[in-house]
Amino acid sequence: MDVAHKLRLGVVFLLIGVNLPCFSNSWNRSRRNRNAITQVKGVPLVDLLSQARDAEARNNSGVALKLYEKICKDYKTSDGAPEAYFFRGTWYEKDHRFSTATKMFTKIMKYYPESPYFASSVVHCFQIAEKLRAGIRPHYFGTIPGFRDFDSAIKNYESVVRHAPRSCYALESLEGIADLQLREKHYDLAIDALSRIIDWYPDSVEVPYAYLKIAEIYKSLVKGEEYNQGGAVVACRYYQEFITLFPQHPEVSFVEKMIRDQKESIVKSKISMGDFYFNARYNDKAAKTFYFLAIYFAPYTVAADLARSRIAEIDGGKKPKSTPIDLLFPSYKPQSNDEFVAAATVQDRIMDQKDGRTDPVSKKSVTPFIKSEDVLGSDEV
Fold first, then answer.
1. Which of 53, 147, 174, 280 has the most CB atoms less than 10 A away?
2. pLDDT for residue 10
3. Does the fold of domain 205-334 match that of domain 79-198?
4. How many CB atoms sit inside 10 A of residue 130's CB?
5. Where does the chain have alpha helices with state H?
6. Domain boundaries, the chain
7. Quick one: fold of 205-334?
8. For the chain, how big is the Rg over CA atoms in Å?
């Protein structure tokens, strides 16, 4: 046996020798706890509670925990059960075993609403959610740090809202849910939480800010003038409701500016569509339609003035500019109305086929292969 191997063995035995007293103490403590439980079999609830409280007063949490576990198991319908669940919950919370602690507090909120421990359980459940939201990690088996658990924080908040909707913590729980869902980019769930604040707590001081937050979320969904402006339209609606409901709020001037900005974005989007039809599709009628829509939506914006100038240019005989692409490829040929309807019908039948739907007239499955002559007729192709 070489010297290095002997040294490694020596280190191993040294570590075992150092930790042996700890293992021994832990084993002895566990044995004493088991003996304590063995001695109380068949003991009435009053005596069990007395022994558990005495163990708790002596800071012998291990024995107290075992006794309270027995009370929860054998006396679920008694007045002592909420106290037992509450002690277990607080003990697990100190140990950072948040999931188990939440189960204890939730049992009190769900099954013992008349218990004096109900209000404290709501507070502890909310505090655990706040810790998880702040990034405090749970511990597995009370010792091994785990991962940040925002999902459990949301579940805790929801439990508070469900079991104590009239408590002061329910409104704060909905705010916490909205914040965490926004972090995870779950915009629909964040909007749902904020909408519940508006619907369930209409007299709360947080309602105006819930309106503003929902509008901000919808506004953030718009990626630019060239994209769908549905989010901007809904944001305008929430901003307008805010002004209607809270005309004296200090944020009114800011909201009015946001409405102007969103309307400007929507109008510019319609102008972009008109420019596309005019320059790329050589369709001045479609272009003018979008320009008129832009003016109709917000007639007093700067962008609306731009749309008016576009219409005036078309009426004055302006034509699309030629590009280098036009020299290489034939100009785009505008579709007639009949051609557009035929192409749309073909596309609709193709989508029916992909979605597994049937023809609404014949009630039969769509032919697997769609040809243009099926719609236009062989003499039109």
1. 174
2. 56
3. yes
4. 16
5. 3-38, 45-57, 61-74, 80-94, 98-111, 118-133, 150-163, 168-183, 187-200, 207-220, 230-245, 252-279, 284-297, 302-315, 324-328, 337-355, 372-376
6. 79-198, 205-334, 343-381
7. 1.25.40
8. 35
pLDDT at residue 345 in the model: 77
Would you say 311 and 288 are in contact if contact means Cβ atoms under 8 Å apart? yes
- Please give the structure tokens belonging to residue 198: 């508006």
* Whether 146 contacts 99, CB under 8 Å: no
Output DSSP code: residue 254. Answer: H
Residues 193-203 pLDDT 10s = 999 999 999 99
Taking the mean position of all CA atoms in its chain, how far away is CA 295?
A: 37
What does the chain come to in residues?
381
Q: Supply φ then ψ for residue 226, to 5 degrees.
A: -80, -5
DSSP type of residue 84 = H
- Fold that domain 79-198 belongs to in CATH: 1.25.40
Show contacts of 153-159: CB within 8 Å, 24+ apart. Answer: 153/128, 153/129, 153/180, 154/129, 154/180, 154/181, 155/102, 156/102, 156/125, 156/126, 156/128, 156/129, 156/132, 157/126, 157/129, 159/102, 159/106, 159/109, 159/125
Give CA separation, 314 vs 266, 302, 311, 319, in Å: 22, 19, 5, 7
What 3-state class would DSSP assign to 365?
strand
Element housing 221 (H / E)? none
For 358, the 3-state DSSP assignment is: strand
Its pTM stands at: 0.71
Of 266, 198, 194, the residue nearest 227 (C-alpha): 266
pLDDT of 328 strictly over 80: no
**Rounded Cα distance, 17 and 284, in Å:** 91
- Given a contact cutoff of 8 angstroms between Cβ atoms, the answer to whether 242 and 255 are in contact is yes
Dist CA 195 CA 200 (whole Å): 8
Segment 125-136 shows an average pLDDT of 95
Amino acid at 244: T
Q: Which amino acid is at 177?
A: I
Report the first-to-last Cα separation within the chain, whole angstroms. 92
Residue pLDDT, tens place only, 343-352:
767 776 766 6
Cα separations (Å) of 66 from 22, 44, 63? 21, 15, 5
Using alpha carbons, list the distances in angstroms from residue 162 to 173, 202, 275.
10, 18, 52
Per the rule left: phi > 0, alpha: psi between -120 and 50, beta: everything else, 322 is beta
